[in-house]
Amino acid sequence: MEIIELDPADGDLVSGAFDVMRAAHAADAPEHAPPHKGVFVKWLAHPSPDADETIFVAVEGGTVVGKLDIGLPNRDNLHFAGADLIVHPDHRRRGIGTALLEQFIEHARAAGRTELSTATHMTWEDGPERSEAGRRFLEKHGFKLALTCVIRRCATDAMSPEAEQALLDRAVAAAGEEYEVISWLGRTPAELVDTMCRLDSMILSEIPLGDLELEPETIDAELKEAKAVRNEAVGVIPVTTVARHRASGEVVANTVIGVFDDPDFQHGFQWITIVDPGHRGHRLGTLTKVVNLRLLREQFPNVGTIWTDNADVNAHMIDINVKMGYETVDASGEYIRRLDA
Ligand SMILES: CC(C)(COP(=O)(O)OP(=O)(O)OC[C@H]1O[C@@H](n2cnc3c(N)ncnc32)[C@H](O)[C@@H]1OP(=O)(O)O)[C@@H](O)C(=O)NCCC(=O)NCCS
Q1: Is the pLDDT of residue 341 over 80?
Q2: Using 50, 70 and 90 to split pLDDT, how confident is the model at 314?
Q3: Nearest CA to ligand 1 atom 48
Q4: What is the pLDDT of residue 206?
Q5: Residues with CB under 6 A from ligand 1
Q6: Residue 109 pLDDT exceeds 80
Q7: How many Å is the Cα radius of gyration of the chain?
Q8: Extents of the domains making up the chain
Q9: Which ligand 1 atom is at minimum distance from the Cα of 28?
Q10: Which of 25, 52, 69, 104 has the greatest CB tally within 10 Å of its CB?
């Protein structure tokens, strides 16, 4: 077995890496949205603007048997390294995972990173049972659970039309006249870029992070543009609804669902929802989410399911999601290991 860096132009290895993702999806969490080959291929070809990404594959007899994605933030959080590691289900318990994890640790250490993070599936309550392999594997290698995120899904028509309207009416009444709701697909309208950067830069200080030590990321117009360019290149369309405070002109609530530019793909992914701390308690989270759901249904009728994950302690967000019909599936355990500086 050898571990080699994946060249995005190497079609055979890229297909092999994707086959590992597909097999792991079927074996580990078949209820989840399946991986999408077109998006994966384009994602490899268009690097992230705010993280240095390196993909390694474990190859045995010409076949890809494991895959390791490493992301090193390159603007903020220069102490941090994140990874996603999977071994093909037919090749587990033979040390391939360990070899890839050692590759991750070496790569992170060489880049001076001291907080290493990776995640694994976990069973949640009475949901489908998940293998203990990831947890045991990571604990054996000195990683500790830092944060548990509960994964939920929601049919886009989970609420009856009457219940949805009632939820929206209550939110509109609570928000009053002070806020204007604005929605769009794709790129942020030019006049909102600066105020959206302000809100985006709050994200990492406002979401629960458990024992992860991350500083807020500074999002400026240039980075926002670079992220939009990458989304377009990769075929990912953000569906966005915000609330703008009329008096100040600032956007103070934002929710985004990411969809793939593929009319046959049935899944959407809830990305961020955030309300500025100074504007909480006006139901802006519910208001923007219900309006965004309606926009998604209208523009992307192919999307029947939305996926979200929330820290298990994020009571307010979970409360809104449950009202909208989200149901738990399983959980993702975020594990960390600290290296000496
Ligand atoms: C977790 C995963 C990467 C392990 O890959 P692997 O190649 O099977 O791992 P290794 O053979 O190197 O296992 C090393 C040790 O981890 C532990 N381990 C791995 N799988 C285990 C299992 N199913 N049950 C109990 N312990 C397990 C054992 O201690 C094992 O050593 P041993 O075989 O000598 O007992 C693999 O199961 C996988 O891809 N799971 C799905 C994705 C995932 O959860 N990734 C999270 C890890 S970042």
Answers
A1: no
A2: confident
A3: 85
A4: 85
A5: 24, 28, 85-87, 92-98, 118, 120-121, 131-134, 136-138, 140
A6: yes
A7: 20
A8: 2-113, 154-329
A9: 41
A10: 104
From ligand 1's centre to the CA of 54, what distance in Å? Answer: 22
Atom 25 in ligand 1: which residue has the minimum CA distance?
A: 133
Atom of ligand 1 nearest to the CA of 94: 11
Same fold, 2-113 and 154-329: yes
The C-alpha angle 122, 128, 133, rounded to 5 degrees, equals: 40
CATH architecture group of domain 2-113: 3-Layer(aba) Sandwich (3.40)
To test the pocket of ligand 1, the residue of 56, 57, 93, 100 to mutate (highest count of ligand atoms within 8 Å of its CB) is: 93
Residue with tokens 């297909």: 15
Share of the chain above pLDDT 90, in %: 94
- Cβ-contact 214, 271 below 8 angstroms: no
Distance CA 126, CA 134 (A): 19
User: What does residue 270 show for φ and ψ, rounded to 5 degrees?
Assistant: -70, 120
Look up tokens 């994950």; give the residue.
309
CATH 3.40.630.30, applies to 154-329: yes
Write down the pLDDT at residue 55: 98
